User: Which sequence fits this backbone?
C-alpha cells in the first residue's frame, strides 16, 4: 500500500509542467519544480515505513533524490570559463572490422553532436579545448578548430587499447591544466545530456572548478548502433549512470565517515 501511494505521488510529480521544464536539457536554466519538496516528503514517509527507521530514511532520501531525480548540472556563463573539457559518449565499431581490442573504434554520430556543441561555444568565446579523441576528431576534421588537445586512449606495447573512463579523462586534463598559464582555472564541461551532471561532478573531483556552459543544449539523440551497449538507449543508460553515481557516493561516504579506514 505504501509503495502504491508513493508511485501515485511520483506519477503526479512527473506530470508537473515545472518538472518537465527541469528536464528540458538546457543547462544554466534550472527550474526547480515545486513538486520536489512534496516528492521528497513522500519518499521520506514511504521509506521510513518500509525500513521502520525514520532516521536512516531521513539520511538516505536526499541521496536517492539527487541521483535518481536531479539530472541538472551546475552551470555558468561562458565568460566565467577558462577552458572546455568535452567527454565522449558511445562510438561505432571499427569500420573495417578487425580485433576491437586492437583496432580503434569509429567516433560515431553522438560524438559528432558533442563536437557541434563545442563549436557553438567556440563561436561565442575562443577557449582552449580538451576533448576525448572521438570528439577531437570532428573538431579538427569537420570544424577546423585550433587549440584542441585530444585525450587519447591508452595503447599498450602489444597494441591493446584501453579506452579512458570519465574519471580517466578528467585526471589527464587536470594534469595538463597544471602547466597552463594562470593555473588550472575553471572548466566548461560538454557532455551528453544524461551524462553531463556526472561529468561536472567528476571534473570537480579531480580538483577543477566545473560548470556546464549556460545557454547551450546538450545532445540527447541516442545511437542504436553504438559500440557501447549501455549508450544505445536512454533507459539503459540512465541505469548505467545511476550505478556510476552511486559508486561515487559510496566512495565519498566511506572516506568521510571512516577517514582512517
Assistant:
Amino acid at each position: 500500500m505504501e509503495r502504491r501511494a508513493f508511485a501515485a505521488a511520483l506519477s503526479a510529480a512527473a506530470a508537473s509542467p515545472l518538472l518537465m521544464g527541469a528536464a528540458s536539457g538546457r543547462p544554466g536554466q534550472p527550474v526547480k519544480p515545486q513538486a520536489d519538496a512534496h516528492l521528497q516528503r513522500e519518499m521520506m514517509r514511504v521509506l521510513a515505513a518500509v525500513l521502520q527507521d525514520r532516521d536512516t530514511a531521513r539520511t538516505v532520501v536526499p541521496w536517492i533524490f539527487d541521483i535518481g531525480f536531479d539530472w541538472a548540472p551546475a552551470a555558468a556563463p561562458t565568460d566565467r570559463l577558462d577552458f572546455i573539457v568535452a567527454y565522449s559518449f558511445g562510438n561505432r565499431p571499427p569500420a573495417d572490422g578487425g580485433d576491437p581490442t586492437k583496432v580503434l573504434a569509429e567516433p560515431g554520430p553522438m560524438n559528432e553532436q558533442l563536437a557541434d556543441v563545442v563549436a557553438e561555444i567556440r563561436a561565442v568565446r575562443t577557449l582552449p579545448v580538451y576533448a576525448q579523441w572521438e570528439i577531437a576528431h570532428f573538431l579538427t576534421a569537420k570544424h577546423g578548430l585550433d587549440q584542441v588537445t585530444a585525450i587519447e586512449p591508452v595503447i599498450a606495447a602489444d597494441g591493446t587499447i584501453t579506452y579512458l573512463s570519465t574519471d580517466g579523462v578528467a585526471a589527464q586534463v587536470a594534469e595538463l591544466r597544471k602547466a597552463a598559464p594562470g593555473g588550472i582555472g575553471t572548466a566548461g564541461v560538454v557532455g551528453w545530456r544524461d551524462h553531463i551532471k556526472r561529468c561536472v561532478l567528476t571534473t570537480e573531483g579531480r580538483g577543477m572548478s566545473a560548470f556546464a556552459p549556460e545557454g547551450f543544449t546538450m545532445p540527447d539523440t541516442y545511437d542504436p548502433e553504438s559500440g557501447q551497449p549501455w549508450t544505445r538507449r536512454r533507459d539503459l543508460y540512465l541505469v548505467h549512470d545511476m550505478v556510476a553515481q552511486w559508486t561515487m557516493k559510496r566512495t565519498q561516504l566511506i572516506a568521510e565517515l571512516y577517514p582512517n579506514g
